[in-house]
Amino acid sequence: MSSTAVLRLHGITKRFGTLVANDAVSLDLHAGEVLALLGENGAGKSTLMSILFGHYVADEGSIEVFGAPLPAGNPKAALAAGVGMVHQHFTLADNLSVLDNVMMGTEPLWRPVSRRAAARAKLLEVAQRFGLPVQPDAKIGSLSVGERQRVEILKALYRGARILILDEPTAVLTPQESEALFATLAQMVAQGLSVIFISHKLGEVLRVSQRIAVLRGGKLVAEARTAETTQAQLALWMVGHEVETPQRRPARSVGDAVCVLDHVSTASDKDQGQNRLREVSLTLRAGEITAIAGVSGNGQAALAELLCGTRRATSGTALLMGRALPPSPARLVQRGVARIPEDRHAVGVVGDLPVWENAVSERLRSPVFSRWSWFVRRAAARLHARRIEKAFDVRGAGLMAPARSLSGGNMQKLILGRALLAPEQDEEDPDNRKYPTRAPRLIVAHQPTWGLDIGAVAYVQQQLIAARDAGAAVLVISDDLDEVLALGDRVAVMHGGHLGEARPVAAWTREAIGLAMAGAAAPQQPHAGATP
Amino acid sequence: MMRLERRHQSSRAALVLAPIGAVAFTMAVSALLVLWAGAPVGRTYALLLQGGFGSVFAWSETLTRAIPLILTGLAATVAFKARLFNIGAEGQLFAGALAAVAVGGMHGGSGFELPPWLLFPLMMLAAAAAGALLLLGPALMKNRLGVDEVVTTLLINFVVLLGVSALLDGPMKDPSAMGWPQSVSLQSELELGKLVAQTRVHTGLVWAVSLAVMVWAIFKYTVLGFDIRAVGANARAAAFAGVPVTRTVVMVALLSGALAGLAGAIEVAGRTSYVTLDMSPGYGYTGIVIAMLAGLHPLGVIAAGVFVAGVLVGADTMSRAAGVPTYIADVIVAASLVAVLVATLLTQYRVRMK
Fold first, then answer.
1. What ipTM does this complex have?
2. Which domains does chain A have, with CATH numbers?
């Protein structure tokens, strides 16, 4: 089998300080196969691929591509050797055409004229050979996410990639788009290309690959033929122990409406026209989880921001417990709204500030944590931070370390704890007129488990279910269909800024949700002039 | 090929070696220039040190020079901490100096007939307010309209300097100054006392150090300090957590402008007693260097201010005795800034040679 190995990683070890990100990983990729690289976040998948692609230099080990050693730390050499990478976050220029993006960096800077005609012919030829239809002159900004991913793949193929690395490629796709991608991969493999498919989703790994390699804690723990393994076996390899997935339990008793949106619209962003709400109506009831599905970028961010106080409605009425929804994060927190933002690094925490300050940042002005809203009660703040650390099992370098140093899962636990754990009674404000010490009334969670490992996902989901059972109204917005189906008591689908009717989860099928996500089914009751 | 890789954790050795390396680099770069000027390196450095720190007189001159530098350094520190890039401390300093003279000066032979214990705080308040208001506009324009404050604050410096020039030749000109463009003098009761007899060190040093401690305490112990640090580190996350971002930026502008304004008032009250166009050889700009040298730490600003002042004062001695131009001092200050910034970078990243 060594004769067919197109790529050999031999004994790759990479250390960051004391952390061993890759520990003597050896891996072969054969011609004409899809090798799935499976592992939790932080297992070392991305580090390994970054070494292969020359972004990092391995401390030990060597790489061979088509039998020739690959010089370390040189992305150009990797490209020249026929290794192409499609990143999870696209590296395309929105205001340029498909052809421009594909050609970018392939021509010498000092050539006086750009050979566009030749490039166009080559692009169309590649596109036809691999069955990836594309319009060379379309602007990237006008393409859907699936189409952009296609351009990324074409970009790699255009440069003569024989080995394609796809990093979490389905994270941004609808189920139907994912199916189309799998078909494309099959066609590429049939033509002799080799693919490394990085993922942490077990189902699609089983669906798409011929072989599976599992990384855990930087080590290669298992390699298996896909046909000879099972989902349960893979999960065990991935986490090293059995994980209890939260059991679906129906809502016990659904209470009164906590938050009511009635035909709420928001202005559109300048850069992302799709991220807005159009006449959205939604009722969130106590003791119930409402889950919003949808392909990201269809207005979910606007909905989350509206309920987190960082965006205003331009029309319609939004009520929180019978009173107007205040457009201010501080006042929302005062009124018992717990908020978990989508991007924990950029929005959830201030990474440069220590963990303890982040743990109390939402309630720093409450009398519990500051005297006259002016002088910080550092002892009380640290005590509360320690309670969060303990209750939510936040593990890291301690309260004084910058929040940036926390892993994704621990950062999310910190944010959960900050939102859900009420500070203890304060003698100077016994009635807690200003900041409630009771449990939150409304929880807004946007992509609460995005990028977390299985253990942390289960933990976060359990916390949300527990909060629901304690009587909170919970809104979960997620791109992950599994999560929507696992958590939602009621499910609604968002598309193009419109929100469909929230129906009980039992009334949905996976296919129906997929269709609604793609905008196929009318998401709203049809009414006159219902055009975008 | 050379590449930077982010370190997972800064090693202890790097943290110790960085400043030593920075000093060595600065000395080496400056030595080349001294050699070029044809002077012996060792003696020139000795003269520089002696001139800046070698005697009671040298120390007194250094500390006198450090007073406005510490204050403008604090102004930059407060603003930069919140990512409000105030390049206008020079203009704010002059605005403060003019306001101080307007309140506390002799007009037509007599000033406001208020007791000094009342007039002095009024004078300081006026200076702080003048500096603060000058920065408020750019801060609001940045916050509301997205106008780059680096441009606005920098340009306002020139407007202010021209305005000061017009005032010193016009309404605020001292009629007894024999035609020199200078303002009237402060009432003598308002001038700051000397800290050490027979020297120029005045109680402005106490002001500067106290204000540095105050800024440090604000950063560390107050909600405003948290707001400033949070807005500077990540404004989006700060807004999400409920920090009033606009209000924080306004507070920062007022505080930073006030510190620069006080620098002007304290220079007038402690050293010059009247305003001239050359009362500040760019203290506002040097304050930025000092803030960066101090790593935006308010107490570090004191040390950085004294260091820079010592180099600038020592350069005069060096230049006179060794025949080396005083510009070497500016090179030393600039090289030390570059060296410190690079050294800080290297504590966070490692260089890989390939």
1. 0.80
2. 2-239 (3.40.50.300), 244-336+440-532 (3.40.50.300), 350-433 (no CATH)
